[in-house]
Amino acid sequence: MSKKVLSLKIAGPAGLGIKSVGHLFSRILAHYNFTFADYSEYPSLVRGGHNTYQISFSPQKVFAPHFNIDFFFSVQAGHWQQHQSEFSSKTLIFSDEEIKGKSKKGTLLKLPLKTLANEIGSPLVANTISLGVIAYLLNLDLNIVKKIVCAFFSKAIDLNCAALDSGYKYAQENFSKYKIKLTFPKKSKKETKFYDGNEAYAWGFLKGEGNFYSAYPMTPATGTLHFLAAKQEAYPNLKVIHPEDEIAAASLAAGASFVGARAATGTSGGGFALMNETISFCGVTEISTVFYLVSRPGPATGLPTWTAQGDLLFALNSGHGEFPKILIAPGDIEEAFEMGYQSLNLAAQLQLPVIVLSDKLIGESSASLDDLSKRKVKVVKSNIEEKPNQDFKRYKFTSTGISKLSIPGTKNGQFLANSYEHDEYGFSTEDAQAAYKMSQKRLNKLETAKKVSPKANFFGSQSAKKLIISWGSPKSSILEALEELDNKNDYAFLQLKTLWPINSDIQKIINAFKEKIVIENNQTAQLVTLLKSQFEFKPTRIITKNDGRPFFPEEIIKYLKSKK
Predict the structure, then answer these.
(1) Looking at the predicted structure, is the pLDDT value of residue 513 above 90?
(2) What is the C-alpha to C-alpha distance for residues 563 and 556, in angstroms, rounded to an integer?
(3) Cα 285 to Cα 52: distance, rounded to the nearest angstrom
(4) Residues in CB range of 506: below 8 A, 6 or more apart
(5) Residue 197 region, left (φ>0) first, then alpha (ψ -120 to 50), else beta?
(6) What's the rounded Cα separation, in Å, for the pair 329 and 101?
(7) Cis before residue 243, ω within 30 degrees of 0?
(8) Amino acid 15: pLDDT
(9) How confident is the model at residue 102 (pLDDT cuts 50, 70, 90)?
(10) What values do phi and psi take at 526, rounded to 5?
(11) What structural domains does the chain harbor?
C-alpha cells in the first residue's frame, strides 16, 4: 500500500496479557500522536488457546487494521505458524523457540522470552519484554514507554520496568540491524485518550444524560456494563444493575424509562432474543428505551468472541406485531459515542424503542479520541406534561403520533400502560376502529423519525462511476481501501447510519449510479434484502463475508480489482 502503515501483532495463550500489552502499545502510539486501528482475536477460553492483538499505525490517518503484518511476537512457542499468510518478505517474526525450519515468508528471530522473564523473577512479564523490544526497534524513548507501562502495572512497577529494560537491551544487542527509521508525527495540542467502542458508547450515554443501564454480561457487549458500573460514584444519578438474565435487564430498563429515566440495556444476539417481548411492550406502551446490541456470529452461541453483521434483519423485525422502532448503526468508535446520546434523544423525542446495532469489531477495538468526558452534546428531552388536567390523555391522537406523557405520581397524570391495545387513556380495547386508529397513530412517528435520525455519510464524488454501499463496521476498511486504490476517484461510498426507517434520500443517491456494490459482514446480504423491500434495487455486485473475521482493506482492494 502506498501510505506508510506499520502493523504489529502479538500472539499467545489466554492469561499472559496479550490484549493488555497490545493496549499499552496503543497508548504509547497515542502519546506520540500516531493514528492507529486495532483488532483482537480470542477464543472463548479463560486460559490457553490462541489469542492475538494487532495494531496498524501511521503518522497519517489509519481507518482500519491491515491484514499484512510487519512485526509478529509470539510470547510462547508455536503461535506464529498459523499466521504465515499475513507475512511478507519484510516481516520480522520473534518467537521463543529454536527455529529448525523456515517460514515461507519473513525473517524468524529467536527471542528467549521465558529465560529473560525467569531472570527477572516472573513468567508473566514476557509480554512486557516484547514491548521493550519494539520500543528499541522503533526508536521510542524508553523513559516515556516506562512511564506509560509502569503506571498501568501499578502493583508490579519494578518487575515491569525491569522487563522493559531487559527487552530493550536484548534487542540492542541482537536486533540492531532490524531497527527502522520511523517518521514521528507532529505533537498535537489536543489531549487525546484511549477508548474502545463500548466505552465510547457509554460516554455518549453519559453525555446524553443517560441515568439507568441494566445488562446481563454477554460478550462482546459486557464492556459497557463494567464501564458504567464503575462510573456510579462519579455520576451520583446513574444507576447500573446486573440482574439475573436479559429478560430482567430489558424489563428493568423499560420500567426505569416509564418512571422518567433515560434508560438503556445492552446485550448481544442471544440476549437480544430474550428481550424481544419487552421491545414489543415498549412499542405498544410508547416507552422510550434504548437497546444496545453488539453483534457476534450466530446462530445460537455461534462464535461468541468473534464478529459479524448477521443481526440486521433480526433487529429490524424484533418484537411481534407492527409498531415503530428506530435502528441505527455506528460505523466506527467516534460514531459509537455519537449514537450513545443520539439514541437517548430519539427515544425521548419519539417515545419508542431505539436499537443501536454495533458489533464485536467496533465494541472491542480501540482508537485515540479527544477527551470524551469533556464533550458537549445536544440533549433532547421528552415532551412531558408538567400540569395535566383531569382529562389527561396519555395516548392522545396527534398528527405526528407523539403525545405528551406524564411522570407517575404527577397530579391528574395517571394513566394505564399495559401490553393490551388501548384507547387514549390507556384502557384496554378490542374495538376495530379504535385499534386501527391507535396503531396508525404510532406508525405516524416514522415520518418524524426519518427527519431526525442520523443521516447517511457520503464519501467521494457524485460523478464517480461506481457506488459502494455498506453499513456499520466495514466503513473503516472501505475508507482505508479507497485511499490505496489507483483508481479511487472511480468510487463513491454511501454509509447508511439509520437502517430503519429508510429515508427516501437514500434511494435518490443510489439511483444516480449505474454500478452499485454492496459490502457487508454477513452471508446473506441482509442490507440488500432491506433495501429491496423499500424500493427497486438491483446491485451490480454483492461482497459478503461470514467467518467471524472482519473485512481487511487488502481484501476489499482485491475484491474491487477482480472482475468476479
Answers:
(1) yes
(2) 13
(3) 46
(4) 456, 494, 496, 531
(5) alpha
(6) 47
(7) no
(8) 85
(9) low
(10) -65, -30
(11) 6-178 (3.40.920.10), 196-374 (3.40.50.970), 383-453 (no CATH), 455-561 (3.40.50.920)
Q: At what angle do helices 526-534 and 504-511 cross, to 10 degrees?
A: 100
CB 357 within 8 A of CB 292: no
> What CA–CA distance (Å, rounded) separates 525 from 337?
27
In the block, residue with C-alpha cell 507532529: 186
pTM of the predicted model, to two decimals? Answer: 0.96
Tell me, what's the pLDDT at 238?
A: 98
Q: How many residues does the chain have?
A: 564
Angle between helix axes 445-452 and 333-350 (nearest 10 degrees) is 150
Residues paired with residue 92 on neighbouring β-strands, in sequence order:
71, 107
In this predicted structure, which of 41-55, 204-218, 489-503 has the lowest mean pLDDT?
Answer: 41-55
pLDDT per residue as tens digits for the range 262-308: 999 999 999 999 999 999 999 999 999 999 999 999 999 999 999 99
Residue 287, helix vs strand vs coil: coil
* CA dihedral for 372, 223, 359, 313, sign (positive or negative): negative
3-state SS, residue 545? coil
Query: Distance between CA atoms of 368 and 29, rounded to whole angstroms?
Result: 9
Q: Is the pLDDT of residue 1 over 50?
A: no
Evaluate whether 337 touches 372 at the Cβ level (below 8 Å).
yes
| Distance from C-alpha of 423 to C-alpha of 182, rounded to nearest angstrom | 69
Let me know the angle formed at the C-alpha of 535 by 314 and 276, rounded to the nearest 5 degrees: 15
Distances (CA, A) of 51 to 301, 309, 515, 549: 19, 22, 40, 14
What are the tens digits of pLDDT across the range 554-564? 999 999 998 76
C-beta of residue 91 within 8 angstroms of C-beta of residue 69? yes
- CA–CA separation, 355 and 362 (whole Å): 16
Closest listed residue to residue 296, CA positions, set 443, 198, 396: 198
Determine phi and psi for 274, rounding to 5 degrees: -75, -20
Lowest mean pLDDT, pick from 175-189, 375-389, 471-485: 175-189
Residue 389's identity, in one-letter code, is N
pLDDT tens-digit series, residues 127-172: 999 999 999 999 999 999 999 998 888 888 999 999 999 999 999 9
Distances (CA, A) of 298 to 223, 306, 515, 519: 20, 10, 32, 19
**409 Cβ contact list (under 8 Å, min separation 6):** none
- Strands lying side by side in the sheet with 326-328: 239-241, 212-215, 263-267, 289-295, 354-359, 326-328, 498-500
Distances (CA, A) of 293 to 212, 270, 457, 496: 16, 10, 21, 17
DSSP 85: G
